[in-house]
Structures are given as C-alpha cells and as structure tokens.
Amino acid sequence: MHELETSAQILLAPPQLVTKEQRHDAERVFLNFQNTRSPFDLCKSILETSRVPYVQFQAASLLKQAVIREWNQLQDLSTLRDYLLQYLTQRPDAENYVREELVLVVAIMVKRSSVDGDTQIIDTLLSSVSQLIASGATHLQTVGCSLLNALLTEFSSSTRATDVGLRWEVHLSAKKSFETTHLKKIFQFCLQGLSEAQQLASGGALASPPVRTLLRKLLLLAEQVLSWNFQFAMLLPRKLVGLFESQQCPTLRPGAEWKDIFVDQNIPQFFLKVYEAVWQVPELAHPTLQCLQQLATLNGAVMGGKEDRATYLGRFLEGGLLDLMAAITGRPLSAQLGVAQVLGRLALFFPPPVLSRLPEPLVLTFLERLEGLCCHLVELMGNVPEEEEMLQEALEHSLDAWVPLLQDTQIFDGKLVQGSRIFPLFLRRHMAPPDGTRSIAEDNQEIAEEEEDDRVRYKDQLAVIGLLGRHRLETNLPLLTSIMEDRVGRLQCMLQQAQQQALTPVDGLALNALNEDLHWALMITGHTLATVSDGETTLIPSEVMQYSLKCAPQVDKDATLRLLSGQGVPGSEQVTDPIVRLTVAVFRLCEVERGALEANLSHLLSPEVATSLVWFLRRWAATYLLPNETYYTELSPVLVAAFGRDTEAGTWVLNFLLGKLKSNLELWAAEPDLVLSSSLALVSLLNNVERGHQAASCPNLAELVRLQAEGRFGALAPAAKRALLKALVIAGTANRSQEASHYWDRLLGPLRDRFQALVQAPCFRTEYATPQVRTQVLDLLESLTGLVEGVTAQNLSTLLPLVLPLLRELVPLVGLYHNYSPVVSASLQVFRAAVRRMLCFLSSEDSNQLYECCLNMMKEYAKHNTGKVTVEASAEENQYQDILDLMELLMDLLSKDFVQFSPPTIVLGPGQVLVMPPPEATEEPQTCASDVALYGLNILMPIMSIELLKFPSLCLQYYKLVTLIGEIYPSKICQLPDNLFQNLMSSIQLGLTQFTPEVSSICLDFLSVLGTHVHKSQLFGSQAHRALEPFLKVVLEMVLLQPLDAELTQTAGNALFTLICCFHEQFQELGRVLVASQADTATGERLARALQALGLNSGTPPVPDRAQRMRFRENFETFVTDVRGFLCVK
C-alpha cells in the first residue's frame, strides 16, 4: 500500500520535483500492479483503507480487468457485486472518476451475467437504481444515474462498449436482447424522473444545485436512449452490421414495440416543455436540444404510415415548436443553432407529402416562422463577429429546411411555400449601402491564407439561396440585374477616372466596397441561374426555362441579340429576355476587366472578383452555351437563338469567352489561383463535343494556340500550364473540320521543335544548370504533361508518335538534373500521366516501348539517389515525394493486366474512319505489367529506408503495391530473385508491427495470399515456404499478446489459419512450448483447452478452403476472447 501511494504521489507531482527515473519507476509499479492475479481481496482492502484517489482508481481499474479475464473462475459473483454497490452508496466523498470506474465494473458484471443466462439480473439492478433515484439524496441519485449510464454504454454497441471478453456476435445478441426487454423501461423511467424534476424546475427549484445535477443526468440518459443504434430486423452481412453499428450519430429508428411511447404519447411536447423550463441554463439546455434533434429524426417500423408521421409532426409543431420559433430570436445564438438543427432534421424526415396533411393554417404559421428565423439570422450576419461560425451553421441548417419544400412545391398547389423575403434580404445583406446593409468594416478585413474562399465556404448556403431565388424569378431576377448593371457601370466609371487622375483614399474605400458587391453578386447570380452537381448532366433549371418562356410574348428577339453583341439601343433592355440581359451584364464586366488589364490598371482590379467571374463563366457555359436540345421537353426560342447550337450568336459567345480566358492567362499570370481557375474553365468549356468542334472556327482559340507555340505562357504556374495544354488537346480532338490536321501541326510541331532544339543544342550539356535553361526545361515538361493528360482513344494515333520519342529523350534528363528536384519531379509527372492516360489503349509493341522508358527512367533515378547524402533541409521530403510518385507509377502500370480496351475507331473527318488493327500473330509477345512492376520495385528497393517509410502515404502506397501484385500474381512473387524476395519479406515483417493498423492489415492480407498459393501449388520446401515459417510465431504473438481491434483480429485470424495450413506440425509444437512456458499450472491448462478448442489438433493438416476457414474463424474468435489477457498476468 505504501509503495502504491508513494508512486501515486510521484506520478502526480509537478515535473520539476521528480526525476525521469523516479517517474518511470512509479509507472512500472502500477503496470505490475495491473497484472496481479486474483486481486479481488487486495482491491477491496485498498478501496477500504487508502485515502489516495489515484490509488483507489488503479484498484478499481484492476478490478475491472480481473473481472473480465477471470470471469469463468469467479465463484461468488453476487457478493462482489453487492459489495461494490454498497461501497458506492456509502462513499459520498469518492472522486467522480473513481466512482465511474467502479460503476463500470458493476455494469460489466451485469452484462456478463445476463449473457450467461441470468435473466433477472438486469431487472434487479434497475429496481435498485429506481430506489436510489427515488431516495431524494443527491449522492444516491448520482450513483443511480451513473449505473444506468454505464449499463447503456455497455449494451449500446460493440464499438462503444468495453472489451468484456465476448465475441462480436455475442455482443450484438446481448444488445438486441437488452433493447427489446429493458431499454424501453429505462426510457420510461427517465421520462418519469424528468417529469418530476421539470415540475420542480418550473416551481423555481432550478436554482438548487442538486435539482440541476439530477435533471442533467436524466437528460443525458434520455439522450443516450434516443441516440441508441437500434438493430435492423433483417439479417445483414457482418461488415454491413459493423458499418451501421459504428455510426456516431444514428437516427431514431425504434421497432414497432415503441409505438406506445412515440406515437401514442406526445413526447415532443414533453421535451419542448422541459426545454422551456431549462433554456436559461446552458448545461441543461444543450442535452435537451440534443434530445429534440433526435426526436426530429424518428423513422422506421414505429411509424405505421403517413398518417402516423403527420400526427407526430403536428404534435411537434403544436406542442411548442411554433412558439419556440417565435421566441428563439431573442435568445442566445447557441439556442438558435439548436432549434435550426431541429428544423433541418424535421424537414428531411417529414417532407412535404407529410407536411401537406396538416391543417393549412398550421402549415402557414410554420412557414412564416421558418422564414422569420432565416431572415433574423441573415440580418445578424456581420454583427456578431465572435460567434460568426455558429451563426453561419445556424443559417445553413435553417436554409436546409427550405430545400424539400421548394423541390415539392406542387404538393401545396403553389400556395403555401413562402420564403420570398429571404432572397432579397440575403442579397441586400451582402451589398454595401445605400442599396445594402453590409458594413464597411467587413470590406477591409484581412483574409487569412488558410481560409477557404467564399465560393467553397458558402457553397451550401448559396445553393439554397439560388433555389429560393428561382422560386420568385419575376422579382428576384430584375433585382439581380439592376445590381449587376449598376455595379459594373460604377466600376467602369471609377477605372476611367483613375486613368485621368489618381484615386483618393475615399475612392479606394469605395472601390473595395464595389469589388465586394460584385464578388457576392456574381456568386448569387451563378447559383440562381445554374445548378451544377458532380457526376450529373448540367441542365438549364426548369424554373429559368419556364420564366423565359413566360416572358417570350413581350420579348423582341432581334433586340435581345443586338444587346448580346453589344449593339443594343438604349432603352431596348425592357423588351429583351431577362436571362440574356443578366448574362450580358456579366459579359460587360468581362469587357471592363479586359480593358483595364490592357490599360495597365490591373492594380485597381480585384483578383478575387476576377476569380469569381471565371467561376461564374465556367458554371454558366456548362449550362447555357450550345446546350443539347434533345435533353429538354421545351426550350425558350430566345435562349436557343442567343446561345444555341448552329447559331451565329452561340459561336460569338464561345469566342468571347475564349477571349476573356485568354486575356486572363496572358495579362494576369502573377495571380496563380486566377490563372489556374481560368485554365480549368478553359478545359470545362472545351470538354464538350459540340463546343470543342465550334471552337475550331473561333479566332481566339487560334490565338491561344499561337501564343502557346511561341512560349508566351511560360510564366504560368505549373498546374495552370498543364490544364491549358489539356484544353487545347481536347479542342483538337473534338475538331471535325477539314482543317483538323493543320490545328494539330500548329499545336504539336512547335512543342516538339522547342524540345529538340533545347536538348540537342551543343551547349546544353554545359549550360543545363543555368536558371534560364532550367526554366525552359520545366516549361516544356509541364506542357508535355498537360498534353499527355489530354490523351484519349480518339486522339491516340495523333499524339503517340510525338509522345513516345519524347519520353525516351526524357530519361537522360532525370539523371542530368538529379540535383534539381523540381525538374526530376516534373519528369516523373510526365511518365505518370503517360501510363495513366495511354497505357490501356496501347498495342503490345507500344506498351513494351512505354515499359522500357519507365524502367530506364527508374534506373536513372536509382543510380543517382542510392546512398545519396545531402545537407539540403528539404531533401528527404523531396525524395519521399519522388518515390511516392514512382510507387504510384508502378501501381498504374499494373492496370494494364486487367484494363485493356479494344483498338479504337477514330473519325478523321467526314467520311474518313480509321480502325486500328488488332495485334498480328508474329508481333512481339506482350510483356506482363506485373513483371515490369516487380522489376521496378527491385530497382527502387535499395533507396527505400525505414525513415522514408515513416511517411504515412508512402508507406501505405508501398504495401498496397506489394499486396496487389501478390493478389494478382502470387506465382511471380514466389519466383523473385533471392535478394529481392528477402528484402520484400523483411519489409512485410516490419509492416506487421511498426506502422499503422491499416498497414498491418495489408501485410496480413499479403501473408494470407502468399500462404494460400504456396499450399495450393504444393510449394513445400521452396524459398517462399521457408520465408513464411517465421511469420507463424509472429502472427500468433500478435493475436495473443497485442491489443488489436475487431477488424484487425479477423484479418490476423485469416493469416494465422493460412500459415497453420502450411505449417501444421510447427503450430502444434509452438502450442506445446507456449503451454509449457506458463509458470502457473491453471493457466497452462486453460491455454491447452483453448488451443484444443481451435479444432486443429487432429493428425490431418487443415486445408485453406472456404468451409474450414469459416469454421476456424468461429473457433478463433472464441479462442482469442478467452485467452487474450490472462497470458500477460503475473
């Protein structure tokens, strides 16, 4: 006892008062203490006599571990359980953490007893808890609530519960039994306690700390029950069950037996009343709101049909939610966030078909108050800087509630959906005075580099605002148009003024405000006019199309087209299409920006506005420019005339956009984010068969190709340069005109000539390291990468004759520039792009040439990096990135063996079709990609080091590559040269224990695959068979002596079974040695029985087939849960 208390004092002492050795010795004392066998009497003695809380906690923790590992040897369970309950109730001065640990021991004992068949144990405990809470004594009520909390946690899910020595299926079975038999009783008990406590709180007793403490514990218990992950009635595969069980925030999905609780009673009203009583006490308000949020997700078998759902929703609204929505605007922002989350969940789980069943006045009131809450939150924006994040989250949740309502407006016959005030208010809130309410202080805030840009940060908000805007286009679109036209006009005037005289500080502030207005106007307009979703075809929103059709009788098509071309007559705007008019206002901003750039006024322009403008143009063009008319049931004739296919106006707009993006790339190269956005917008614009083909006749595309050929884009950032070349390749691929071959000549010829002129120059070997030459090399490499990234089956025959020779010439550059990591990295990216984009389309002969280039490049890299020593600080990180790229290159190479497309049919022009012939019988045999990958791995292995493997992504990629080769071609692994094979197996042994659980799992999979192949192919005595033998002991020790999670234990079991199949006699010998090594006879006997239960002691070795593997898996889980723990006890 004295030793434990002294050690506790040392551990808890300030660092300056004890030495490191003293602290380590104290830690060792407690580690040894935790391994004590049969410590029950010892723990009782410590709990009774020690007055040091930390020592009491260690005794409680040891008691917990002993109960788990020695459960089957415990004789008098009820005596120990009664002792613990008595101790808890008689020690009001016990520290919280000591009490919670002892409560956990009781919960574990109750769970194990119930699993073993004691059907009354839980009822007995619940009866005791009821008495404790009803006693009125604060200490006893705390103990009772802690017991319920521990019981719920233990039964809740195998992913959240303590490891109590039970198999996973037993955990699930115990949980199912508990939720069927006892969970409802606990919830009813919580409701009863909350009802009594709420009455006390309403009577003014909330100021009493004991009442608050009890109420909080009951609320937390109710939240636990409402967050319970109810099991599915259907049988699901283990992995799916594990996925559902591991949900952190499951919805409320009780079974039909809960109908009397949630459907027949007014539970929402009850919790709303509780909230009204406690909302001023944050520690009580938060769990109450959490309960309400869970109640808002009620679904599943408990809901009989739409009538039940409508009744439940009506109780929610009439039971106090409507009143709360009216009062919430005067309460703290945290309360507004909680209510907004409730509303967002209600809208998701009780959509318009349910809402429409309620009385119309009730629905109208709900919508009005929802609108009022949204407007209130919008008005708060910028006024609570210290709570801005919370405000934005609350606004997002309240806006989310509108999404189902606006998507199902027909259910309400267009009468009930409100929300008309939100859009103009949101727009006004982001405009500067006098039109808006944004404060000038917001315009001058510094934007941190790590902050997301507004287009990403507010994407979800703006999507809903756009939806609301489209709901009232007849009022919202003119508002947007007037703001856009006014701000663009004012910007033009200010820039013209700046050409004549310098702007004053006041003018500078006005310019900042104007740029902020334009930035937000562009984002709101972009989300109003278009909806873009990844993976879905982008279409003109139906509301926009209907509005344009509705305006068509009053629209003059010719006046609209004149306005589009910039030749509109003043005053004619009133008879133009409103969508075209708004688009023209944005196009005018493009003209103003381009004019300012050409007049050297870029310092007065905002790169953020320019980036938002590019974002808008990309989004707009994907939706409106040259649309596929077959996707629409009806089309606005004015929109077709202005932006449609085979129209002069459509081609003019395409050329206009190309010109705008060209000017950005040409004149704004110093802004990397902007030029990258412009290049990606160019890819998006041309990555459409029709737009790409029409672009062939656009002068601005020809100008882009000319500037690229002349090297005028050399100053662009690497990613922007790649995207630019990719866009130009895409345009050439889509070009169906007679001039297509001339286009390719203008694009590819200068690139080839520049490359050859540079590397074949007589002075290149002497001047290659000069900054000027390095810059040229990097420019060519980035351009080549972009060009290769544009390769498709359709343009392969055009690009391959250029790319393959250049790849061969790149190999010496890797060695020449081995001391210049940017050049090496750029070269690797070219090879990666070539393998990723081209390999699956290549013939056998061309594939072999690409393999040869890749292997020669890796040899060149390895030659200069093996054993390389440098004092450069970033050298290790650069090498890590290079090897990671090479590993990913090898992984991409493997795809050739299972992804191979047939020879493509290429359309050369009208009436001209080229079909690439299949390989001839005499053609050179196809080299296997796995051979290339293994050979490449052999080249790179000497460079790999433990230090490099400490980079998580490189480590993971390496082991994934090795295991993938093993899974596809285990025979090739077995045929590796001795030195490579030994290095490989050494790295597997390292991966089992030195890195992350994910890497360990991959290594175990590798052992399973290789062992299965060795056994099935009867390779006993081979190199692979001999190399696998040491892993039998390694994996067995992992399983028995190391803490593993459930998934890793299963993977380890598969690997162990495979190894046992290969080394059955050695496993039996290992088992005998392990049993004999146990100093305690009882432990040795227990281990022997557990090994016997595995079912592998027969004279016949097991076979790695499915039936025996599944049987072993069941026995293995029992074996692990039974044995793990007692082997490491003193």
From TrEMBL:
- Recall the GO molecular function terms of this protein's record: nuclear export signal receptor activity; small GTPase binding
What InterPro entries does this protein's entry cite?
ARM-like (IPR011989), ARM-type_fold (IPR016024), Importin-beta_N (IPR001494), XPO4/7-like (IPR044189)
Signal peptide interval:
none
Q: Which SUPFAM superfamilies match?
A: ARM repeat
Where is this protein chiefly located?
A: cytoplasm
Any Gene Ontology biological process: protein export from nucleus
- In which domain of life is the source organism classified? Eukaryota
Residues covered by the Importin N-terminal domain: 26-90
Q: Name one GO cellular component term.
A: nuclear pore
Matching entries from PANTHER family are given as: EXPORTIN 4,7-RELATED, EXPORTIN-4
The entry assigns this protein to a family as follows: Belongs to the exportin family.
- The entry's protein name is Exportin-4
Q: What's the source species for this entry?
A: Ornithodoros erraticus (European soft tick)
